[in-house]
Model the fold of this input.
Amino acid sequence: MILELLAGNLIHGLLLGCVYGLSTMGLSLIFGVLKVINVGHGPFIMVGAFVTLAMVTIFGTAPPVAIPAALVVGMALGFAFFYTVMRRLIKAPEFTTLLVTFAIGILLQEVVKFTFGAEYRGYNWEVGKIILTITTIPMTKVYASIGSIIIALLLYLWFNKTRIGTAVRAVVEDSEGARVCGVNVDRIYALSFAIAIGLTVMSGVFLTMFIPVGINPYMGGVYTLKAFVIAVLGGLTSPYGAFFAGLIFGLIENGAYVLFAQIPGVAPFSLTVSLAFWMLFLLLLIKPTGLLGAK
Amino acid sequence: MLKVENLESGYGSMQVLWQLHLEVNKGSITSLLGSNGVGKTTTLCTILGSVELWGGKITYEETDITHLPTHKKVDLGIVLVPEGRHLFVNMTTHENLTMGAYPKEAVKHMAESFELVYSLFPILKERAKQRAGSLSGGEQQMLTIARALMTKPKLIMFDEPSQGLAPKLVGEVFDAIKKMRSEIGLTILLVEQNVEASLNLSDYVYIMHEGRIKAEGSAEEIKGSRDIKEAYLGI
Done:
């Protein structure tokens, strides 16, 4: 019985892990290229959720239609924040970049609250479900996972098969080396930041397809934390490491829920939420370079 | 080909270069010599634009390029083989070379460039699929030079290409530099601490001391001048 429950939850974990993976790629990309930790990461996911909400409730479209919109909104925000703020911070001390990205997060939260209000919202999208003996999987979750995988693959191809994508990898490895190859490093910074934010906002769309309720301006915080754990797990600078670490995190989180539920007198949900902290703590203690992609 | 007048630059509030002038003739090998910390690397980086220029004028092939960003200068055919290599160690040798051919003009000639660098450095062809970080020190230095050649340069600036190499490899690197001039027709600006080897290789020599040019002359003149050698080069 518990094994069936565990197996069922692990399937959900794997599906959610794909979305977690995608939602962390942007964080890793920004750290890799700009050496900046985006503490305002979660609020960009929240923006993605509100883009979805707006598309569904105002324009009446299906949630996946919000994906291109999220990419456009995300990249526009990315370019705007880069050219107004981030560009000045490339050689700034870490503490400054932490404060500024934290401030960007607060700004996003408050602007969204001002525009949409602070109440919890949600939407409904029924597209059927897959019924297995051990669990039932709504098709929305399947679509969200497949969408995340497709976008991660497209990013992989862009990095490895295109001239500009290769230049981004070159800048991640050695920006001075890239400069003497004739790469306009400042433009690569801007483009990478915009793409990273675009990815993050898009992952917000997929997250609402997973959990279409509880959309509110402050929903991002928990995802910032999860993304940090996943990014550290994946070795911080590698977007693919982040994607695979996302899968692992999804599996552990959902598996742990079932196991925690077996302990009498324990609220499994809150214990699962704290799990991310424990994982970060253990990781930094045991292998601070990350489990995957570490050099 | 390259003319630098009254160049001044530095880091933060510390000035490193003062009223620096130098000229590199087309097809020549020009050396910039001097002991450690006199501003040789800063000179090259300021010419290329990776260190901010405070004043002066840089002319390249009759065009004023003083305020062009680095990547535009690379597009025009100026390239630097940097000190410390700055390779992309997690990419393969082949990928590193492909990155070298990043300028639009270089992309068009990528196939010829590959032929050229593989004929100059056959070992790199054998290492094509290997990670750059796994190459030996000498191979990495060759890869750095080869990557610079992939940009289709006309003027190539070397920053201490012999640094940290075994004596046999130093010879190979200097031979390669000679070939670049004689066989490809490149113009070369060389910064070196290996004074003897550079004097033998160069047509014209500038001696730098405390951020200024203190002496200049043909390689023969410098070799013949005991004063200059004693005062600035310590030999």
The radius of gyration of chain A is 19 Å. Chain A has one domain: 2-286.
